[in-house]
Amino acid sequence: MKRDVKNNISWVGKVDWELRSFHGHELSTHRGSSYNAYLIREEKTVLIDTVWAPFAEEFVRGLEEEVPLPKIDAVVADHGEIDHSGALTELLRRIPDTPVYCSANAVKSLRGQFHQDWNFQVVKTGDRLSLGAKELVFVEAPMLHWPDSMMCYLTGDGVLFSNDAFGQHYATELLFNDLVDQSELFAEALKYYANILAPFSPLVTKKIQELLSMNLPLNMICPSHGVIWRENPAQIVEAYGRWAAAYKENQVTIVYDTMWDGTRRLAEAVARGINEAAPDVRIKLHNTSLADKNDIITDLFISRAAVFGSPTINRGILTSLAGLLEEVKGLKLPAKKAAAFGCYGWSGESVAILNDRLRQAGFEVVDEGFRALWNPDDKALQSARAFGARLAAAL
Ligand code: FEO
Questions:
Q1: What residue ranges line ligand 1, CB within 6 angstroms?
Q2: Cys staple from 264: which of 10, 16, 258, 350, with CB 3.0 to 4.6 Å?
Q3: Whose CA is nearest to atom 1 of ligand 1?
Q4: 196 Cα nearest atom in ligand 1
Q5: Residue 151 to residues 23, 103, 115, 249, 360: CA-CA distances in angstroms?
Q6: Predicted structure pTM score
């Protein structure tokens, strides 16, 4: 069902209330998501993006209720990932000659996924498509979020269709940013940035500078997921500017896993030691086998330091820590300080391994770490508290 956005712009996407994981099972989506597609009806009628493949038929049926499909003069495919291009096959089966405006890389990704030779019209930054009195201006945005990504800007209305950038995995019927719960909205926008866009922060900074240098009036930002930024759209651009610039809050996140509770007790003692030495620091603890991986990553993203704990098992570390650190390495979280701890019974390699993995993931390891032989007694817990206090000074 269409929703009015502004003047001749309608939202024709799909709100997916049930979605609980994205990118397969890589990213949790506790509050669902939406696949935003937009229909612009000026002298020419243009569709911007589509929806995820499971909703293709529903999408095309709904679109047909709004506009006879042959009246669509052009489709813009801002990004080839299937959550936005998934209904192209169903749509273009019905209107096969319709031009598809996209980046050169999107021709590769769309052909590679759908194996169709559609009527691709390659555009690059600065190219324009006349809709009559207004124009669509294309702005390539490689790596935000794929090499094929681009945005487009509608003159006259001052609306930026930003695709993945500035989005949130957030299902709502309210459509606009000023109508939803602000703490939910910003929690989801931050989680989205930390888990999807963080590795590309230098490119985010560059793209924001490029957009600002174009001096385009910005009345609204329409991303491809979540709400439309109608009220003060600059606020999400400013938030991205902060998040892309080695963002840190006064928080330390302690991430651990445990087998027989020893490393958990160490984690809590380390937290207490940090708190005693630095009472103003916010401390978060996560057991990596129990907490949501993407919530942990969001907490790591906003922290100024992190402490990782694992007991030694089979001369290694627990797999939940190993998996998390592999993902964190890829996300290139902005420079953080870190240290490691863990219990052991025999060989005791876990702390050294964690230190290595932390360095590989880009952390600055500020302490050689803390190990406790067997399950910690009161003396070991005191030492863990002292380790926490030492870290508070170094972190
Ligand atoms: Fe929402 Fe990169 O797709």
A1: 79, 81, 83-84, 145-146, 164, 224-225
A2: 258
A3: 164
A4: 2
A5: 21, 10, 24, 30, 34
A6: 0.96
84 contacts 163 by C-beta, under 8 angstroms: yes
Helix axes 182-192, 234-243, angle to 10 degrees: 40
Q: Which atom of ligand 1 is nearest to the CA of 164?
A: 1
Q: How far is the CA of 81 from the centre of ligand 1 (A)?
A: 5
- 206-249 pLDDT tens trace: 999 999 999 999 999 999 999 999 999 999 999 999 999 999 99
In order of their start, the domains of the chain are: 3-243 (3.60.15.10), 251-394 (3.40.50.360)
pLDDT (tens digit per residue) in 295-343:
999 999 999 999 999 999 999 999 999 999 999 999 999 889 999 999 9
Ligand 1 atom closest to residue 145's alpha carbon, by position in its atom list:
2
Burial class (CB in 10 A: 0-12, 13-18, 19+), 334: middle
State yes or no: pLDDT of 80 exceeds 90: yes
Structure tokens at 252: 């330390």
Distance in Å, CA 224 to ligand 1 centroid:
8
Distance CA 93, CA 365 (A): 56
pLDDT in tens, 121-158: 999 999 999 999 999 999 999 999 999 999 999 999 99
